[in-house]
Write a structure and sequence with these properties.
alpha+beta, 8-stranded mixed sheet, 3 helices, 22% helix, globular, MMCE/EMCE_epimerase
Length: 137
């Protein structure tokens, strides 16, 4: 299996972006990069950068969305780790063939001009893991 290229971002589920923004900017010194809405996933995403690390705050736009259900069940907090890959379609096939459980059997549009696919947490030590590939590569 090909190695991942890098950690792309850390996803954190929040009830609302704005109350959290002060912490990331003023306390941690993160650079705010903007907000994007991803209608297909019913989420608003705020992007922050601290050095080489990107953080995404994920706010639900629908009470039935995966982020809303996550917060209802577990509260705000770490939602997923995302890793950049060269060939997302091939990675999905390799992971499936190795016997691990994918949530997504096909790439789907994500935030920040990325195609994404999630590996089920039961295959990743309880951590939801996202694989992503730039649509502009």
């Amino acid at each position: 299996m090909m190695p991942v290229k890098s950690l792309n971002h850390i996803g954190i589920a929040v009830r609302a972006i704005e109350p959290q923004r002060t912490f990331y900017e003023d306390v941690l010194g993160a650079t705010f990069e903007g907000i994007e809405e991803v209608p297909s996933q019913h989420v608003r995403v705020a992007f922050f950068r601290i050095g080489d690390v990107r953080i995404e705050l994920l706010q639900s736009t629908d009470p039935q969305s995966p982020i809303a259900r996550f917060i209802d069940k577990r509260g705000e907090g770490l939602h997923h780790l995302a890793f950049l890959v060269d060939d997302l379609r091939t990675r999905i096939d390799q992971i499936t063939q190795s016997g691990l459980n994918m949530i997504d059997s096909e790439p789907r549009p994500g935030a920040d001009q990325m195609d994404v696919a999630f590996i089920h947490p039961n295959s990743c030590g309880g951590v939801l893991t996202e694989l992503c590939q730039s649509r502009t590569r």
